[in-house]
Amino acid sequence: MVLSDFLDPAGYESGLTALVGRGFQVDLVQILAPDEISPTTFGDLRLVDSETGGQQEVTFGRYRMKAYQRTVQNYLQAVARILPSSRHQFLHRQLEHRFAGIAAQTTPASGGCGDREMHF
Predict the structure, then answer these.
(1) Per-residue three-class SS string for 91-117
(2) In the prediction, which pLDDT does 86 show?
(3) Is residue 95 a contact partner of residue 26, using CB atoms and an 8 Å limit?
(4) What is the pLDDT of residues 59-68, one digit of tens each?
(5) 32 or 117, which is more confident?
(6) DSSP state of 82
(7) Could you tell me if 119 and 13 are in contact, meaning their C-beta atoms sit under 8 angstroms apart?
(8) 71-87 b/e with 16+ CB inside 10 Å = b?
(9) How far apart are CA 6 and CA 102, in angstroms?
(10) Percent above pLDDT 90 for the chain
(11) 77: alpha, beta or left, given left = phi > 0 and alpha = psi -120 to 50?
(12) Residue pLDDT, tens place only, 96-108
């Protein structure tokens, strides 16, 4: 079972395809925060990567929400397509779910940004 957000800039595909290619049953659980699925903060933002400390300044308005959500859905589908057969399982869960519950469900049988920072 692989638990991840699958948002690694270096990619995740080669590792997963290697596992599948070696005959392992691979079950993926993609865990994302609710704000990664449907942001509630708009305006000029500084996004801070909680794993690397990298920062990106963005302007995100409500008018971009549909395009953003389409991009997120396309990404979720791309992760799911890595698994070639019904022998493997892909689940998407939001971070608000308890970790134990997720494991049980998936086991077989300043530049213009002001003060607002979002850590992801």
Answers:
(1) EEEECCCCHHHHHHHHCCCCCCCCCCE
(2) 57
(3) no
(4) 988 888 889 9
(5) 32
(6) T
(7) no
(8) eeeeebeebeebbeeee
(9) 16
(10) 7
(11) alpha
(12) 644 444 444 444 4
Q: Is the pLDDT of residue 78 over 80?
A: yes
For the chain, where are the E strands, in sequence order? Answer: 2-4, 27-32, 43-48, 55-60, 89-94, 117-119
3-state secondary structure of 38: coil
Task: Take residue 28 and report the two structure tokens written for it.
Answer: 């993926």
Q: Which two tokens stand for residue 74?
A: 């396309």
CB 83 within 8 A of CB 28: yes
Tokens 């800039």 locate to: 9
Structure tokens at 9: 């800039």
Radius of gyration of the chain (CA): 17
- At which residue do the structure tokens 């049980």 appear? 104
Query: Which residues share a beta bridge with 23?
Result: none
Can you read off the two tokens belonging to residue 45? 């933002």
In whole angstroms, give the CA distance from residue 31 to residue 82: 16
